[in-house]
Amino acid sequence: MAAGRSRVRGALWLAGLGLCASGVVLTIVVLARAYHREPPARGGRGLWARSEQARRLQPTFSPEERQELKELLQGAIRLQTVSFAPDDQNVTALAEFEPYIRKAFPAVFSAAFIQHEVIGEYSHLFSIKGSNPQLQPYMLIAHIDVVPASPEGWDVNDPFSAEERDGFIYGRGTLDNKNSVMGILQALEFLLRRNYRPQRSFYIGLGHDEEVGGKNGAKKIVAELESRGVQLSFLLDEGSFIYEGIITGIEKPVALIGITEKGAITANFTVKLAPGHSSAPPKRTSIGILSEALAKLEQNPMPNLFGHGPEIIMFEQLAPEFSFPLNIIMANLWLFGPLVGRFLERQPATNALVRTTTAITMFHAGVKSNVIPPSANATVNFRIHSAQTVDQVLEIIDETIDDKRVEIETGDAFDPLPISPWDDQTFGVQVFRQAILDVFPDVGSTAPGICVGNTDSRHYGSLTDAIYRFNPVIFGASDLPRFHGLNERISIEGYERQVKFLFELIQNSDFHQPVEPHIKLHEL
Ligand SMILES: *[C@@H]1O[C@H](CO)[C@@H](O)[C@H](O)[C@H]1NC(C)=O
Ligand SMILES: *[C@@H]1O[C@H](CO)[C@@H](O)[C@H](O)[C@H]1NC(C)=O
Ligand SMILES: *[C@@H]1O[C@H](CO)[C@@H](O)[C@H](O)[C@H]1NC(C)=O
Ligand SMILES: [Zn+2]
Fold first, then answer.
1. Cα 316 from Cα 522, distance rounded (Å)
2. Which of 82, 122, 180, 445 is the most exposed, having the fewest neighbouring CB atoms within 10 Å of its CB?
């Protein structure tokens, strides 16, 4: 160990990321000297019996199909399904979406075993009936709405033009999340045209208000499925990506699949005092008292909880991918955990992995330059680490501020999402691993990740405890700022692979009994 440590050159740090709906990113960047080493041995490829393998449809698309899938994605980007605020959406575009997908996916809309329903006016629920009712259904979800985009700063003229440039489609929604909306339906369309009939039933849910909370879309889809008594074997939503070149110290791309999301509290802090003239000021003003309270919150960050949440599983499973000596460090977090935790908190992006974060986002006070303000208020956004609850965080806030003059009012608050099962026996995990092997053979490891933002999937907890968040797209360092930002884009090849991944995933979900222990976790 000591020898290993002495060979670390340069700083080790992990600037984490993992994208979710709200566009927050959690990546792991480890800066250290890259050591070359042999790739880890991979487990067997064949998860499925030979007879089952023989029935599988190959994910090869004709040139016409490849042109078709690209143009259909472009058409979807051009519909400006923007969510401006919870009750302010472009309903014209949302309404145009239904005829658009009807025309784009005729086989999906005409199959006798597929039922399509519009939920909450603009969301869509597809129920695909499998031939074997014994198998528990699963569900794929995505969202139709996008965040706003104005043309300033984009390399293309219009963020809704879906312009093709250098092998990429540019436009709002190309990564978040029309790629999934269209990719899921496209994969199913191609399967149906090849006379595929699923054995296992599944659902497709396309929400229309994910970016503004999901109350009319996802929530209503869930209520509908609850009323039918549906329980799911797993649910797949958007979330993390396949990261390449983002995690320094890891050469190969690695797939991170979100198994939880952080919780959140939005709290308003208010100080009210009698107003007065600035010529005879009181000792303390509302602004002074509130500032002091906020300063205490910033100077006393919530505890570093590295090792108490699922981030530890993520690092342990990625351990073999790291170059020496980081692989040793990551594989021995029982020993190096505190050290790694300290490193992680140095960068904002990885700090978000190890603790409940505190962000003062608004401050209002003062009316006139010579009037003592009667009140001051501020809004603070906390993102709760998996090992804490809303109540625990509120208690710490109270203790930290320790000032009765500061009133606290909490608006939107929810606990971290439950941690989905992650082990070799979990059906969803097996299915994802196999589909990743099939379509992304370069991926070194598939590991669980943590989303620091939130997705529609958080509304689905009553239907399953196996909720996963993953966008099967390779994501590099330059893609980070594009998410909810300028020049959002997807490579045409990347979108084709996403369709292939979904094409394989739907087929993989039919098989219920893997014949051999699937891919072993890499061992050091
Ligand atoms: C709403 O969407 C329609 C159709 O896509 C588009 O023509 C219109 O400009 C959009 N309006 C706004 C305010 O985004
Ligand atoms: C916050 O303070 C501003 C300025 O004093 C005031 O206009 C506003 O009503 C206050 N908001 C709340 C929620 O107290
Ligand atoms: C907190 O303050 C913000 C901004 O002033 C306001 O929009 C929000 O409604 C307030 N929330 C609560 C719970 O008072
Ligand atoms: Zn999203």
1. 10
2. 82
